[in-house]
Write a structure and sequence with these properties.
With about 425 residues, this protein is mainly beta. About 10% of the residues lie in helices and about 30% in strands.
Length: about 425
């Protein structure tokens, strides 16, 4: 740990310890029906009901080029409803570019790629359209080999703007981003209805967001941001590892559910609610508390975690039940800080969502999260091992953990059926 990080940690430990809320959580209401395994099948809220482009035109990715016919970018930016499948596996080097998705009705089926699957490096994706499903891909932006604080600030996947509704990001592995690994945002101060809405981030590995790298602000290791006025966001069944803050972070007037996530080695904040008043000076709208339900999540301390960090902190309205905070020696810790306003019932919930109890969550997540649980790459295997061995740490560059992947290109011709597409896609996930 560098001296700046250590000093910051010492200062914040003192302030955080004075603000702990050690009160017990309320019991989970009978309306929340728990299950033995987390499944999103049949959930009809937060964008999970969209079919994306699964009923549209079939587009095959046939090369690993950054652009041009047959590339992933070509397929993403194609007009009309489209199902994107892969006849090629390996690494797509975006060369420092963020690829914008502005055409709606899109399904990206990364499970169809031959082993080792598809990994995007040195760039990210920006979703600015409705009815989009992205699954079973890896995105690892890294520092693009640029100098520290150079201003290169890409997200892994950013969902942004009022057109970005009914978006489901599922079973992805995102690491080494500069701004955030994942985000849902919009113009922020333009008020309700202008930002992203009905967005789900699920079943994913969200790890090792770079800390002191190319962000112009300096230290900026962030997991997942839900920006001002972004509403109806679900963060379900994810593994957050070694992101300093935003695991996730809900800002002014944001709403959502945070369910069945395992957060390890968060440093400054785990689940966080707050806003910055100075950002709202001379604007037409006033800031207000975010409102969320936080159910059956686990915060487990790591080597970078500040002493007495609560699973929920900041300022906002939160319904909490069945969460755990576990320190380095296995002792339970406080659940929330004193500025959190507790709610007696969830402010919103997903229809047909049945979470797992937190005591059964860890083993299930380690087996099922990430881009390709049946075919993990070396990076995901290392990240998972760093959790089980309790050795994970925050990093400033991908070079500290082996650098960008260099997988060989692989090919497999696909024979796509004319019907029963869902069952065909499912066959690749076994």
């Amino acid at each position: 740990m560098n001296s700046y990080r250590l000093l910051t940690k010492i200062v914040l430990i003192g302030s955080l310890a004075l603000a702990m809320n050690v009160g017990a959580q309320v019991s989970c209401p009978k309306s929340i029906l728990f299950s033995q395994a987390l499944s999103l099948h049949g959930v009809e809220s937060f964008g999970m009901q969209t079919r994306g482009g699964s009923d549209g035109k079939l587009l095959k990715v046939t090369n690993l080029k950054a652009s041009g016919e047959g590339s992933l970018k070509w397929a993403l930016q194609h007009k009309g409803a489209r199902l994107v499948v892969f006849e090629v596996g390996g690494v797509i080097d975006l060369g420092g570019e963020t690829v914008w998705i502005t055409e709606p009705y899109l399904t990206v089926a990364g499970e169809t790629a031959p082993s080792p699957g598809v990994t995007l490096i040195r760039g990210g994706l920006s979703v600015r359209a409705h009815d989009v499903k992205i699954s079973h891909v890896r995105i690892r932006p890294g520092d693009n080999n640029e100098p520290k604080r150079s201003g290169w600030e890409t997200d892994g996947i950013a969902v942004s703007g009022e057109s970005a509704t009914r978006v489901h990001i599922d079973h992805v592995s995102v690491s080494w981003a500069i701004d955030e690994n994942l985000s849902a945002s919009g113009p922020r101060q333009k008020g309700p209805g202008k930002s992203a809405s009905n967005v789900t981030f699920s079943n994913s590995i969200i790890a090792e967001a770079l800390d002191y790298a190319t962000h112009k602000k300096g230290r900026h290791s962030k997991g997942l941001l839900v920006h001002d006025y972004v509403t109806q966001v679900a963060v379900i069944g994810n593994l957050f590892i070694s992101n300093d803050r935003r695991n996730p972070y809900f800002k002014s007037h944001a709403t959502g559910v945070v369910v069945n996530n395992l957060i390890y080695n968060a440093a400054n904040r785990a689940i966080h609610l707050d806003y910055i008043p100075d950002e709202w000076v001379d604007t037409a709208f006033k800031p207000g508390n975010a409102s969320i339900a936080a159910v059956s999540n686990i915060l487990r301390y790591g080597r970078d975690t500040y002493s007495d960090l609560a699973v929920v902190s900041g300022k906002g309205n939160v319904f909490m039940c069945d969460n755990q905070t576990i320190n380095l020696v296995g002792d339970p810790m406080p659940q929330s800080t004193s500025a959190i306003s507790p709610l007696s019932q969830p402010p919103l919930w997903a229809k047909n969502l049945s979470p797992m109890k937190s005591k059964k969550l860890e083993a299930w997540l380690l087996k099922n999260v990430g881009a390709r649980p049946w075919d993990r790459d070396a990076i995901d295997l290392r990240i998972l091992k760093s959790y089980t061995e309790r050795t994970s740490r925050m990093i400033d560059s991908q070079e500290e953990v082996g650098g960008y992947p260099k997988y060989p290109q692989t090919r497999r011709e696909l024979n796509v059926p004319d019907e029963n597409i869902d069952a065909w896609l499912e066959s690749f996930r076994r």
